[in-house]
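Page 42, continued from yesterday. The earlier attempt failed because a stray header line got pasted into the input along with the sequence. Redoing it now with the clean sequence only.
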Amino acid sequence: MTRRKEGEREKKKGGAPPCAQRMYPDKVRPSQWGGVSVRGGRREAPRGAVVVWCRVGSKGPSAAAAPLDPRSTFPLERSDRRVVAVATLLSFLFSFFLLEVAKFCCSMSATRMQLLSPRNVRLLSRGRTELFAGGGGGGGPGVRSLTCPPLSSSSSSSSPGRALSSLSATRRGLPQGKMSENGVVSRAKVLTIDTMNPTVKKVEYAVRGPIVQRALELERELSEGMKKPFVEVIKANIGDAHAMGQQPITFFRQVLALCSYPELLNDKTFPEDAKSRARRILQSCGGNSMGSYSASQGIDSVRQDVALYIERRDGGVPCDPDNIYLTTGASDGIVTMLKLLMCGEGAARTGVMISIPQYPLYSAALAELGAVQINYYLNEENCWSMDISELQRALDEARQYCNPRALCIINPGNPTGQVQSRQCIEDVIRFAAQERLFLMADEVYQDNVYADGCQFHSFKKVLFEMGPEYSDTVELVSFHSTSKCYMGECGFRGGYMEIINMDDEVKAQLTKLVSVRLCPPVPGQALMDLVVNPPQPGEPSYESFIKERTATLSALAEKAKLTEQVLNTVQGLSCNPVQGAMYSFPRITIPEKAIKEAMDLGQQPDMFYCMKMLEETGICLVPGSGFGQKDGTYHFRYRTLDFFATADLCIYQLNFQLSSLLKDLIVVYVQKW
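This time it went through. Structure tokens are written below.
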């Protein structure tokens, strides 16, 4: 039987050519050739294999896509020698192809392209190479087709080689992955501590720093039954009034409940004034629902109520609702204004003056925005008052390396608890006008004033009472919040800011900036409306509201006075009068031995002190180094609490001093012995 007839017979059987059976008797099975099984007219490849389908002389894409019998690739009528030569050549080219494919796969980003599967690679006719990257072969949805330029129409024997060599040219257009030394795509993270935003790494927020994290761990350990020298963790680190047991104002919660679930408007247990407030708020919301977006600047009716509140507070000084921006707490407004002030590079970079001690929001925001922090120190010996000569010193020094543009004031003070006098505020306004500084007045504790002879004066009121020379020129923004004062509603994130004398074009940019975040939380806006427009005399809820408000402020005043008196009775502690806000910032004397021990541990001495206090008493404080302090002095911020917590703190201070003294005595005794 001739080889041609033998081949035709095997072809009818569906088997491999006889030459292939003689060359690979142990590898070739019926209906299988070149790793491709033919079953019912379908081509199937072993799982994970890379298969090349070749058809020389096909005409166009339709021919390339037609069903392909792998055995028809070879001219079966030729001699075995010719077939062996062709097979050897193809084996070499196929090995070279696999090498190129491996390199190609390694060069592709693992997140953007899958490794090539049997259906992803095709060498088409006339030297045209087409690669399919994605979830499957062909040009379906989600599949990326990468096609090399057509090769020259040379002999068919050279086309496969050129097509294979062109793969390296194709992959140059692909996203490059990071290559390791062994040529494998690196699995290193795209976002690492070395490749992240460097300004974020500079951000620090001591109020929720390492001590607070340890406090959370201690709470978990206590809940698991572990024995500690205390039975609970007292969080004196943060001004979260409700978390510390302060009760919410009933009227506020009634209106918020009605707004959240309008079906309750038919419930007779709610007073009529609460229902009327809820209806007014809901009518101002899209679809009569607090779940809808509001205007980016805030609900119009709420901004109108805020403007009326400011006019009443400031004795009739006019307030335009269009200058009111409702915010996500005061913090959101502060950061937004700082963003507007950022400008310049190098020595022209924006500098912002902040008080030391300061609330860490300011230093954190300036670090994130890449601004220059300019420190001016409050006068601790004069109850943390502001000193114009200190402001001038800080400003003159800063102008050597930045462009000071803003001055921030917190009144009443956080963490220092002072209330600035009217004379001090006037001096600050004159200083800002003379030095062309933008004033930022943080007045979120304006209702928390306790000390005799102290009174809150808003910067806006003082500014307008100083006359047109200042009221028409000095740029000012003031902030208020629902989180502090007698409300203590920190979680609702309600607040506002009022802008004075802002350039109209800048104001348009401010509106655009707040629009990016759509709107502040609508429940927070509703709560802000209740704060600035509480029950009025003659309304059903007025008496209960006044009773609750007075009781809350009286309790805060008693705790502030108690804190000052008790702390000043302990050696090693000294505390200025707590005139307002919710905190004291006592100065502590730390023995030299403890300072050295802290330094050996790589900690600030006041951090060391506060951490040991947490471990021994369960009282969580914030070290003064987190707020800033003069070199060589040590403090901590203490949220004014009840007598027992303050007594525990004092006992710890006595034990701390005593233990240090005992250590010194033991050392002296051992040395003498």
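Notes: The domain at 250-543 is CATH 3.40.640.10 (Aspartate Aminotransferase; domain 2).
Reminder to self: strip header lines before submitting.
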